[in-house]
Amino acid sequence: MIYLYNAIFLKPVFNALIGLYNVVGDMGLAILLLTIGTRLLILPVTLQTLRSQKALQDLQPKINALKEKYKGDRQGLAKATMELYKTEKVNPASSCLPMLIQLPIFIALYQALTVGLKSEGMHLLYGFVNNPGTISSLAFGFFDLAKANFVVAVLAGLSQFWQTAMLSRHKPKNKIPGSKDEAMLGMMNKQMLYVMPAFTVVIGASLPAGVILYWLVTNLLTIIQQYVFLRPKLKAISVATVIEGSKPEIREK
Question: Using CA atoms, how far apart are residues 229 and 221, in angstroms rounded to an integer?
Answer without folding.
Answer: 12
